[in-house]
Amino acid sequence: MDQEITIDVSGVSGQRGPADHKRRQQILQAADEHFRLYGYRKTTLADIAKAINLSTPYLYKFFDSKQAIGEAICSHCLGTILTEVEQSIAATRSPVEKMRRVFIGLESRGWRLLNEQRKMHDLVSASFEEGWGSLDRFKEAVFQIIRRIVVQGRESGEFERKTPLEETCRTIARMTELFFHPTLLEQAGKSQEEEAVAAANVVIRSLTA
Amino acid sequence: MDQEITIDVSGVSGQRGPADHKRRQQILQAADEHFRLYGYRKTTLADIAKAINLSTPYLYKFFDSKQAIGEAICSHCLGTILTEVEQSIAATRSPVEKMRRVFIGLESRGWRLLNEQRKMHDLVSASFEEGWGSLDRFKEAVFQIIRRIVVQGRESGEFERKTPLEETCRTIARMTELFFHPTLLEQAGKSQEEEAVAAANVVIRSLTA
Predict the structure, then answer these.
(1) What is residue A36's three-state secondary structure?
(2) b/e for B157-179, b at 16 or more Cβ within 10 A?
(3) Which residues contact A80 (CB under 8 A, 6 or more apart)?
(4) Contact call for residues B192 and B180 (beta carbons, < 8 A)
């Protein structure tokens, strides 16, 4: 990770002490490096502390547990994916095209993570297995993106207005999981761009019905 | 398992010798019992052989490996689920209602397996993790069920005919996975009947567009 990047821990559970403390960032940078090199599961709090010449108890001034550090790093990683998806949908005004880009964007980012940053993928995988808060926030953010697109499409008259907004958007959000859930990605073992486009098309047809 | 039940091994890989040999059924019954009691991973070929007073090498006359036995039992288990889904959709003539029952049926059967036959769920889970042939056949069967419903709906004029049949049906089949994939079921940790109905509704709206 670029040392200039600041990891935003607002809303991340298990954090202690002042949010903007430079020690916290130092710990997170060291953790990020260790997770990328050796993986989340194989890294201990002692490894992280040692890397920056701190004592393990000192780390507890900032974080409840290794998981709290993992959640902060995972949140940052998932946040980057969300930012890219947001940028991609901001580049078009069509709600139909935006919806397609959510599916394609999540698929391609998930697949790239698995292939290019396997250890980061494993961290995200742990967040799914253990149901971390970072994952809930990510799923909620995906839902909110989809909700905004559906609302826009309803307002412009391109999308139907008969179905309950919340339920429809929750269901669409669930469908995107087929293309970014770490276990499903691993088991698919290949890029699923075509499948993601096909799923987006089913969703779009249902919205323009 | 009821001792009267015969496990059909046709099409299951890793089988050796005559398909209808009563020894094969005896081995499968013993394996089924062991898998249910101790789980697939913890059962060895030697355990199965010992239970029916056979030697482990003798088992290799009928099966390539423990996985070949696992696949046969898994196929049988998934086949039972398919039969129940088939029965449920045969009870209505409406393609819309049939489609809804596929989603609801797979969800409820998957959830019941997780809750009532945890060890069998674990065996199915192993088939997903390791990509067994029994799983491919199950997914293909789900696809064929969906394809039949869509063809029927297109013939009766209830479903649209503009989209490519194969792609649309493959996509719908993928969507059902959200409700029976063992890992997703475990992580959901609750019955998802409402979500399955909502997903079926999105699919149905897209088909009746």
Answers:
(1) helix
(2) eebbeebeeeebbbbbbbbbbbb
(3) none
(4) no
Tens-of-pLDDT digits for all 209 residues of chain B? 444 567 887 778 888 877 667 889 999 999 999 999 999 999 999 999 999 999 999 999 999 999 999 999 999 999 999 999 999 999 999 999 999 999 999 999 999 999 999 999 999 999 999 999 999 999 999 999 999 999 999 999 999 999 999 999 999 999 999 999 999 999 999 999 999 999 999 999 999 98
Backbone torsions φ then ψ of B173, nearest 5 degrees: -60, -40
**Could you report the predicted ipTM of this complex, rounded to two decimals?**
0.89
Write down the CATH number for the domain with range B74-207.
1.10.357.10
A168: chain B residues, CB-CB within 8 Å: 198, 202
d(CA B19, CA B3) in angstroms, rounded, equals 18
CB contact under 8 A, A195 and B168: no
Three-class DSSP labels, B164-207:
CHHHHHHHHHHHHHHHHCHHHHHHHCCCCHHHHHHHHHHHHHHH
- CATH architecture, domain A73-207: Orthogonal Bundle (1.10)
Sign of the alpha-carbon torsion through A75, A80, A81, A87 = positive
CB contact under 8 A, B202 and A198: no
Residue A177 at interface with chain B, using a CB cutoff of 8 Å? yes
First CA to last CA distance, chain A: 45
3-state secondary structure B21-46: CHHHHHHHHHHHHHHHHHCCCCCCHH
